[in-house]
Amino acid sequence: MIRYLLRSLREPDTLRHIFVERLTEPVHLNLLSVFVALFGSLRTKVDFDLIERRYHAFGLLRAADYAREIGIDGLTVIEFGVANGAGLLNLCKVGKRITEITGVNFDIVGFDTGLGLPIARDFRDHPEYYSQGDYPLQDKDLLLRKLPKNARIEFGNVGDTIRGFLTDVRAPIGFISVDLDYYSSTVDALTIFDGPSDLYLPVVVMYFDDVKRELHNRYCGALLAIEEFNSRNNLRKITRLNFLNKRRIFRNATWIEQMYLCHIFDHAIRKNPLKANRGLQAVWK
Q1: Comparing C-alpha atoms, which of 101, 90, 84 is closest to residue 42?
Q2: Is the C-alpha dihedral spanning 63, 200, 192, 225 positive or negative?
């Protein structure tokens, strides 16, 4: 528990996580967390929110479990918005641990300009929060040296790099983290779902970072990008992950409200009731 808290001090909003989210939960659960931190399995630590960047751990494990249920042993994991690489490196570290317990391997891909945010186009990009040049990659060579062999970064404009990437997807896409700040960049990122249905799990787990601030709203930013995506697509829909807070041990965490699913309604498994019963219902219950 102490080691987890020390690591978490490096994360944004740490004080809120500890004093508003964690310590407002029942005392017996926080006491039990100490035992879990010392002796619990990785799955139990994920359940108790004891893994750094809890949304990564949950998303990767959920995607891996579902992949295993339907006989898939490899997944593509994507992070839109790499910045200095802390999130991408965390995906690599947590992914390695999840591979060890599930047998599902991850191909981890980051997308970033490497130059920070471009100029905001209009109010929909939330210029009250984000500005040109925010979150640049300060040491590209150092980050690339730190990446393991199963990870890489696609540098450039997201809308351009996705088109080439979709011709070279090495395993079905199972988890996507979106942290691009702008509406316009998030619109581009969601073109990742323009490929044929077999490029994806039937349900892709998603985390949206930029939906939690007070002025975020359905008419700007990532929330508007999601609404427009759903309006444009009949067979691909992004929805909130239903009642996740009711199924978590610790229910006050902000990240719970940031988890989404992209449903691939034209996926082959959704046309086969037998496979659906063995797969979708087994995991997503």
Answers
A1: 101
A2: negative
Give me the amino acid identity at 125: D
The conformation of residue 219, written as its DSSP 8-state character, comes to T
Confidence band of 276 (pLDDT split at 50, 70, 90): low
Distances, alpha carbon 206 to alpha carbons 24, 175, 179, 223, 270, in Å? 27, 6, 11, 13, 19
pTM for this one? Answer: 0.91
> Structure tokens of 81?
């918005």
Here the tokens at position 32 are 């039990």
Could you list the residue range(s) of the whole structural domain that residue 181 is in?
Answer: 53-283
* Helix ranges restricted to H, the chain: 2-8, 14-15, 27-39, 42-47, 54-69, 86-102, 140-146, 158-165, 183-189, 221-232, 244-247, 273-278, 280-283
Structural domain includes residue 35:
no
CATH code: domain of residue 100: 3.40.50.150
Task: Judge whether 123 lies within some domain.
Answer: yes
Q: Dump pLDDT digits (tens) for 228-246.
A: 999 999 999 999 999 999 9
